[in-house]
Specification:
Number of helices: 8
Protein name: Aquaporin family protein
Organism: Altererythrobacter lutimaris
Order of helices and strands: HHHHHHHH
Subcellular location: Cell membrane
Distance between the termini: 10 Å
Family: Belongs to the MIP/aquaporin (TC 1.A.8) family.
Helix content: over 70%
Shape: globular
Mean pLDDT: 96
CATH architecture: Up-down Bundle
Structural class: mainly alpha
Main location: membrane
Oligomer: single chain
């Protein structure tokens, strides 16, 4: 059971990042310099794969694919600390593997260093807001209608691409993985730490708000 959970988290994050990076490369290639069109293509692919992955792998691992989401469930005491650490490790490894896979598909150098600068108060605030919105959506939808989680997550990330200045990474594992891609979806390695800090703060804030708004009964750690 543990092995299946870890495999689901690693595979899900791999496919998520491969989609984000790969669709970014494809969109940039086909858009002919039109960044709005490129972002739209990147957005649609990401929202679509999230729906599929959560529907498919949710019953196995809970479909976190995101250390910030795992942090929220750890705070909610629905995942044991050691398992949470294992989830984060395989999420980060899966994310890096997803970047490598995307580069291989488009015949690019497998490991790159992004030169795309994403820094400043607006970017950090955007990542905090994006992660807050994502985690609150997950926790709130679990309380209201668990079967709607795949569509709700896909929609909030789709929206986040367009209403945040950072295009809604909202995921530390994805931020790390995207720092290894000097493509449309990349982020300079020097900017990753601040993104991760903002994402973790956003996740904690969402947990605090959700804890006061939704009527939870915490389950035993799995």
């Amino acid at each position: 059971m543990l092995a299946r959970k870890l495999a689901a988290e690693g595979l899900g994050t791999l496919l998520l990042v491969a989609t984000v990076v790969g669709s970014g490369i494809m969109a940039e290639t086909l858009a002919g310099g039109n960044l709005a069109v490129a972002l739209l293509g990147n957005t649609i692919a990401t929202g679509a794969i999230l729906y599929v992955l959560i529907t498919m792998l949710g019953p196995v691992s809970g479909a976190h694919f995101n250390p910030a989401v795992t942090l929220a469930f750890l705070l909610r005491k629905e995942i044991a600390p050691l398992l949470a650490c294992a989830f984060v490790a395989v999420q980060c490894a899966g994310g890096v593997a997803g970047t490598v896979l995307a580069h291989a598909m488009f015949e690019q150098p497998l490991i790159q260093q992004s030169l795309t600068v994403r820094t400043g108060a607006g970017q950090w605030l955007s990542e905090g807001v994006a992660t807050f919105a994502l985690v609150l959506t997950i926790l709130g939808t679990l309380a209201a209608r668990p079967s709607a989680v795949p569509s709700a997550v896909a929609l909030v990330i789709t929206a986040g691409y367009w209403f945040t200045a950072s295009t809604s990474f909202a995921n530390p594992a994805v931020a790390i993985a995207r720092s290894l891609s000097d493509t449309f979806s990349g982020i300079a390695p020097a900017d990753v730490a601040a993104f991760i800090a903002a994402q973790c703060l956003g996740a904690v804030a969402a947990w605090l708000v959700a804890h006061s708004v939704f009527d939870w009964k915490a389950q035993a750690p799995s």
